[in-house]
Amino acid sequence: MIARLRHITVRQWMILALSNLLLVAALGMLMRLKMLLPLPAINQKFLLHAHSHFAFSGWVSHALMVLMAAVIANRKSHENLSLKYQVFLVANLLASYGMLVGFFFQGYGPFSIFTSSVSVVISYGFAVLSWRDMTKADRKSSGYRWFRAALVFLVLSSIGTFFLAYLMASNNTDSRLQLASVYFYLHFQYNGWFFFACMGLIQHWLIQKKVTLTHTRMVYWLFAWTCPVTYLLSILWWDMPGWLYAIAVAAVVGQGTAWIAWIRAWAIKLPLFRHHIPMVSKWLFLGVVTAATIKFTLQGLSVIPSLSQLSYGFRPIVIGYLHLVLLVIISLFIIAYAYLNRSLTSNRPAFVSTFILVAGIVLNELLLMAQGIAGLTYVYIKHIPLLLAFAAAIILIGLTGLLWSQRSE
């Protein structure tokens, strides 16, 4: 077992991550079908928990751990990681599959809670190992500061999970506390661990290409210091003093400024390195940047308390926003970066399959947005559940084709 484990390459780990994304998409498709067909054997709430937990741990966290470990250990896509990282990756996958099975069959039951706790402990171990190796490395990379912040926010996000578990164990039914706990976890996963890890990866790639962007240190510190503060945007419906609200607004302005500065720096230096980027990655990165700009714009609008209460209290809008970040920004970034570092091979079938995948994701987002607006305006749109199932099927087809395109490489 150990001998086999030593020979798994970075590319093979990423193919496995993509297989996990296919499984996430299949669960999403099943959720859409459950809204159209009886399927009495399937508990929709259990299915939702299995879908979301596995998406976070089995897909995004696994992929980011692989890519970060490859950077820290200076490994190419065809090379294998050191055994210590391989062990953590296997452990994380076992815990992820355990959560998938546990939540699917029992929801928040003993087994699913146990595997969730194990997953958190594994993330702590990975954070300690990565931090230590970055400290020992002779190579200096500005991408490391993004990685360190990502690891801090990864650990910090677990507070929300543990506090929610405490509320459930103590039979505390305060819905505001439960919602605040869930949003705490989501915020520091999405806007902390996921975002900072992605920024660290692209920053490291730029350094490899000997490209230095202006204002990178300022951009980093603005995002790092404002990330904890912008959690307040998730709980503006909770009465807070005016001075705290003012700090939240200032944080939003800071992040908007940082994002604009980073985009402008990219636009100035783009001619220096665009020939190094595969065509499929160029289009994917363009989509990611566009979606991230929309995300920061929506974040700016959310400082209006009435809009915040309306959006965070309306489920379709919350789901649409979460999918915007997880699917359009984070997932497409990971796939684009995998093409960039050759963990995924760029060929014609891969390009076509990626186009199908993106089409399904965009259709899914447009339908969720339409559903949210329709709900707010009390307008009924026919066949939305059927159309969402159709979008899920397109995503599933795209991912299946993408995996198939990598079979002989």
TrEMBL record:
The chain crosses the membrane at residues 12-33, 53-73, 85-105, 111-129, 149-168, 188-207, 219-237, 243-262, 283-305, 317-340, 352-380, 386-404. It comes from the Bacteria. The keyword Amino-acid biosynthesis does not apply. Keywords: Membrane, Transmembrane, Transmembrane helix. This is Uncharacterized protein.
